[in-house]
Amino acid sequence: QSALTQPASVSGSPGQSITISCTGTSSDVGGFDYVSWYQQHPGKAPKLIIYDVSNRPSGVSNRFSGSKSGNTASLTISGLQAEDEADYYCTSYTSSDTLVFGTGTKVTVL
Amino acid sequence: QVQLQESGPGLVKPSETLSLTCTVSGGSVSSGIHYWSWIRQPPGKGLEWIGYIYYSGSTKYNPSLKSRATISEDTSKNQFSLNLSSVTAADTAVYYCARLTGYFHYDYWGQGNLVTVSS
C-alpha cells in the first residue's frame, strides 16, 4: 500500500491560517470517512487532533479543523501559534482493512 | 486513564528477531471494542503502520513487511507483542504501540521505544 501524499512543509506567520492536504485514492481517503490527523512534536508520540474527517477530540483547540473532498482530506490550522510548529500526519482506513499513514508535513511558524 | 508502555531491547543484531511488548493499563486488550496496534518511525522519517490485533486474536499487517511481522496478545497480562523477523538496518526505528478505536483512529499511544539494528 502506498503512503498518502502530503506536502513536505507548510509555513505561515502567527495569526494566519494554513491548510495541509492529504491525497489518497478511492480505496482509502475517498472511500471512507475514517481519516484522522495527528500532531507530533520532536521526541514525542503523536497526538490525535482530528478523527472521522472533521471531529475534534475533547481538549483539542477549535483552531484545528478537518474536511474532505473526493480523495483528498485537509487539515486547517487557523490563528497559527508558535506551539503549532510540529509535524502533522494524516491516516486513513483502507479497503483492505488496513491503515495507511500520510508522508507527513512539517509546519513552521515564521 | 488508559496508558500504554513499550518494553524490549534497544539493540538487535541483523537477521535476528525484534521482540517488543506493550503493557496496557486502564483498559483491556480483550475488551472486543478496540484494536491494538504497532506503528514505527525511522529516525528523521515518517510514521509507518505495522499492523493490529483485535479480539479473538485476529490480525492485519502492512503488506510491505512481507510476512515478517507477527502481533500476539497475552490477555492474562493485559499485553500485546510484536515480533519482526529477519531484521536489517532498515528496521531501525522508534516503535510505538497504540490503541485503535473501532472507528480507526489512534486515541492512546505509548511513549515509543527506539530499536537499533546493528551488529
Could you walk me through the main structural features you see in this protein, from its secondary elements to its overall organization?
The complex is a heterodimer of chains A (110) and B (119). Chain A has 110 residues and is an all-beta fold. Chain A contains no helices and nine strands. The model of chain A has no long low-confidence stretch (mean pLDDT 97). In chain A, the strands form two sheets. In chain A, strands 1, 3, 4, 7, 8 and 9 form a six-stranded mixed β-sheet that branches. A three-stranded antiparallel β-sheet of chain A has the order 2-6-5, with no helix packed on it. The N and C termini of chain A lie far apart (35 Å). With 119 residues, chain B is mostly beta strands. Chain B is 0% helix and 52% strand. Chain B contains no helices and eleven strands. Chain B has strands spanning 3-7, 11-12, 18-25, 35-41, 48-54, 58-61, 69-74, 79-84, 93-100, 106-109, 113-117. In chain B, the strands form two sheets. In chain B, strands 2, 4, 5, 6, 9, 10 and 11 form a seven-stranded mixed β-sheet that branches. In chain B, β7 and β8 form a beta hairpin. Chain B is globular, with a radius of gyration of 13 Å. The N and C termini of chain B lie far apart (39 Å). The model of chain B has no long low-confidence stretch (mean pLDDT 95). The chains are: A mainly beta (110), B mainly beta (119).
